[in-house]
């Protein structure tokens, strides 16, 4: 399984979902350093979400879009992160939910990005709102502060989710798009009732494999 870092836990350390399982803790200590911060991979099954086609298709180009940045050094500016990140590998996360599981997901992506920043890996999150308002801005800022989310977050109108833009499914509470050279390599989505550890694990495993690069053998 993948150990998921708790957004409320200090430091760059993963916290296994089943903290009472001594075997899992022992396995985590024995793993090489490259796998200890975000992902602790054991040989167990994970729940698989029902297919939800959300995000640009694999191989499709990622369209540019400008949005208001609400956290990070570019806060209050209109920025196109697709443009800014250029051909780098990027983890782009669309959210319509600001619950604790989403905080944990973004916090774990932060950990991965920190560990692979030297390889060019970047990330950003997009909160989708029908009519973006100051209330949405405050909600996202509180979400980031309480969850210690470091990736830049923006607030965007639902038009960004349209089929002609980022193609985010209307039922998706979270959509994770991994792209490189501005073309989609992976897309994963979860509905609101799938925001649990068992569904987050395979998403994080896929992000981990993407972070390790196209020439790195995938972790089983």
How would you portray this structure in words?
With 220 residues, the protein is of the alpha/beta class. It has a single domain (46-211), classed as Glutaredoxin (3-Layer(aba) Sandwich), CATH 3.40.30. The chain is built from five helices and seven strands; from the N terminus they run αββαβαβαβββα. It has a seven-stranded mixed sheet. The longest helix has 17 residues, at 100-116. The chain starts with 21 loop residues before the first helix and ends in a 9-residue tail after the last helix.
CATH topology: Glutaredoxin
Q: Helix share of residues?
A: 25-40%
Beginning-to-end CA distance, first to last residue:
10 Å
How many β strands by DSSP? 7
| Computed CA radius of gyration, to the nearest angstrom | 16 Å
Give the strand content.
Answer: 15-25%
* Sheet with most strands: 7 strands, mixed
Question: In CATH, what is the class?
Answer: Alpha Beta
Number of H/I helices: 5
Strand order of the largest sheet: 2-1-5-4-3-6-7
CATH architecture: 3-Layer(aba) Sandwich
Low-confidence stretches: 10-45, 215-220
Give a quick set of tags describing it.
7-stranded mixed beta sheet, Glutaredoxin, alpha/beta, 27% helix, 5 helices
